[in-house]
Amino acid sequence: MSELHTHLLPDAPFGRVVPAMVTPMTQEGSVDFETAGNLARRLVADGADGILVNGTTGESPVTHMQEKVDLVKEIKESVDVPVISGAGSNDTAHTVRMVEKIQEAGADALLVVMPYYSRPSQDGVVAHFRSVSQSAERPLILYDVPGRTGLHVELETYRRLSELKHVVAVKDATGDLAAVPRKRQETGLTWYSGDDGLYLPFLALGAAGIISVMAHVASAPMQALATRFDSGDLEGAQHLATALAPLVQALNGDGQQAVMAKAALKVAGVIDETTMRLPNLGPGNAQLATARKGMKAAGLI
Fold it and tell me: For residue range 161-172, what is the model confidence (pLDDT) as tens digits?
């Protein structure tokens, strides 16, 4: 009798567990490219099968174009997994320039955030991404994070965006689980969770994986969770999700994910320097203690 194998997860074209990597900096505040390369290699060795650079957790609002380009080049030279790069702004012309420069640097895909602050109309959102898509040569991942953008993207807008040539996936940080099945079905896009706390629910609703903060220190158990889910071991996946819950709260609970990701890496002994550019401040003793407590409760230290 042949053995039956259950596979519940779709293909993950940009990796299943993708850390939204911090940008290491020197004590003086310049980007530390050597440490960034070492960090990317460490993350992959620990279980990450994709890397995102130049995202919010990577302090993208305060790094400059050439730094973003050079960081992509460094990470592409350092690892053999897909490298995604943030390339978004609330200025369409600036976003187009970033996309052009960053894809030339070798990024495998581009994460483009919904235009924030300006709160454009739904037609404006489509026009923004149409301009970006016309300049793109690499796949585009839409980043929907209304808590940061102040923008609600309607289902019909998703349908229209999915028709653009280079739009292939979504990083969904809306927290709206109920909307995921219909969005996926009606767009055909690949879905990624953008919320650590909703990793397992998103997999259950057909997501391919997660772009994550806690994957900085938890890629291995997160990969194990996906493997268990994929094989039909739902109880095992639930057990791992429950075990990781204290880490989710520790790194995401106060909304300072970039700070807490560097705190966790410091506690893990992966990085020595936790300097950040203003307006963010690097983690202090309280944040380090919170990270340590969450990692210990999750069985990671």
Answer: 999 999 999 999
CB atoms within 10 A of CB 9: 16
Instruction: Indicate if 171 belongs to the active site.
Output: yes
Domain that holds residue 120: 17-233
Confidence band, pLDDT 50/70/90 cuts, at residue 248: very high
Tell me, what CATH number does 215's domain have?
A: 3.20.20.70
Which pLDDT tens digit goes with each residue over 48-79? 999 999 999 999 999 999 999 999 999 999 99
Helix (H) and strand (E) counts for the chain?
12, 8
What is the domain count for the chain? 1
Give me 230's structure tokens.
Answer: 């994929």
What distances in angstroms separate CA 163 from CA 100, 145, 186, one per listed residue? 21, 21, 11
In a domain, 213, yes or no: yes
- Using the Cα atoms of residue 295, residue 47, residue 75 and residue 67 in order, give the sign of their dihedral: negative
Catalytic residue among 171, 183, 262, 266: 171
Measured between alpha carbons, how far is 287 from 281 in angstroms, rounded to an integer? 11
Please report the beta strands in 69-188, taking only residues with DSSP state E, as ranges in sequence order.
83-86, 109-113, 140-144, 167-172
Helix (H, G, I), strand (E, B) or coil at 31: strand
Q: Which of 143, 158, 192, 199 is catalytic?
A: 143
- Residue 235 has which token pair? 């109880």
Active site residue 68: no
Query: Does residue 6 have a pLDDT over 90?
Result: no
Q: What is the mean pLDDT of the chain?
A: 97
